[in-house]
Amino acid sequence: MGPLDALNHFANLFLPALALAAIAAALAKGLWRRDLAGVAWTHLTGFAAAGSVAALLVGLLVQGRDGRMATYLGMVVACAVGLWWAGFGPGRRLKRPG
C-alpha cells in the first residue's frame, strides 16, 4: 500500500464521524437558533467531532473492525453529548471570545 492509499484509508475512516458532527451542529444551530446564537458553529462542531471520533476509535478497538452498527450508534450518542456539552452544558463557557 502506497502513501496515497494509506491517506485515503485514513480519511475514509474518519469521514463519517466528521460529517456527522458538521451536519448535527448545523441542524442544532437551526433548531435552537435563539439558544445557540452566541455559540459558534465551529465550537459545536469541534466538540461533536471529538465525541464522534472517540466513539469511532473505541468501536474499532472493541469490535476489531470498522463499520459496525453499534459503532455508528455510539457515534450518534457521543455526537449528541458533545453538542449538548458545547451548546448548553459546561463547555459553553469554554468558547473563545470574539
Structure, described:
28% of the residues are buried. This protein has helices at residues 3-31, 41-63, 69-87. Helix 2 (41-63) runs antiparallel to helix 3. The chain is mostly helical. Helix content is 72%, strand content 0%. It is elongated and about 50 Å long. The chain has a domain at 18-24 and 40-90.
Quick structural overview:
With 98 residues, the protein is an all-alpha fold. 72% of the residues lie in helices and 0% in strands.
Please tell me what the overall shape is. elongated
Specify the structural class: mainly alpha
Q: Order of SSEs, N→C?
A: HHH
Mean pLDDT: 91
Percentage of residues in helical conformation: over 70%
Count of discrete alpha- or pi-helical segments spanning 4 or more residues? 3
Distance between the amino and carboxyl termini? 44 Å
- Catalogue the unreliable spans: none
Quote the beta fraction: under 5%
From the alpha-carbon coordinates, what is the Rg to the nearest angstrom? 15 Å
Largest sheet: none
The tally of strands reads 0
Topology diagram in text:
Elements: H1 3-31, H2 41-63, H3 69-87
Helix pairs in contact: 1-2, 1-3, 2-3
Name the descriptors.
about 100 residues, mainly alpha, about 70% helix
